[in-house]
Amino acid sequence: MTIYVPTPLRPYAAGKDALDVNAGTVSGALDELTQTFPDLRQHLLNEAGKLRAFVNVYLNDEDVGYLPDKDATAVSATNTLSIIPSIAGGTCRPGDCAFGAGTRAE
Amino acid sequence: MSVLQLTRAVYEAIRAHGEETYPHECCGALLGKPAARGWRIDAAVKAGNTRTDSAHNRYNIAPAELVKIEREARSLGLSIGGFYHSHPDHPAQWSQTDFAEAHWLGCSYVITAVAQGRAAVTNSFFLAGTTEEDKRFEQEKIEVVAAFEPLAAFGESKKP
Question: Which residues of A fall within a CB distance of 8 Å from B93?
Answer without folding.
Answer: 92, 97-100
